[in-house]
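3.2 Worked example (two chains)
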Amino acid sequence: MNDIEKAIETLKMENALMQFDLLTGEDYLIELQNKDIQDLYIANLIAIKTLKKQIPKKIKKFTYPKNIVYMYCPECDEGIDENNLFCSRCGQKLDWEVENE
């Protein structure tokens, strides 16, 4: 597990703990928490979503007749070219090793 994956797991664990009452052992809905806790919970969700985009995903590619290759983002299906390290639409980090397979 790399540092990004560890950070994601830590944020997920923190969010899970925010929804658990240590005194009673019962689930405690985030909607019933105070505003600061709710804001932290939402900030963690945003951070998780952003960090996931830093984990490279293999590009998708489709070959048309006459060997015309179309490459696109694995997250949002935006067309991409070989110069992109990240998708210009959604920001997903791209893994180009698929071309060597």
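3.2.1 Second chain
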Amino acid sequence: MRIVSLVFAIAALGLLTEQETHVHAGTRTLSREGRLFGRFLIWRCHRPLGDFTGVAVRHYEDSDGQVTFYVELVRPSGRSLAVRYFYGRACSEARSAAENLARATGLQMHEDVG
């Protein structure tokens, strides 16, 4: 019973963790971190931008018709890592952010996916 309670407690803390992604064009690195309640650093990882082949915009529409646009870094395998997101009909903002990211990092701009 204690193990189940511990798993639920860890999962609850995970839901309260806010993730942030920062792209450092100068050092050609990407850093991701998770903060509990937005304040306490829980984890941090760094990746070289060389692990990615490009930048793309992906959109997702839920069953209620709400649209979210994701600016993503694309890996050679085709998988991607979301860096920013935009809610609503902000396609032009997402596209502009992706183009700026591609220009700053020197990565290729991929066609919109999703």
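3.3 Remarks
The CA atoms of residues 12 and 38 lie 15 Å apart.
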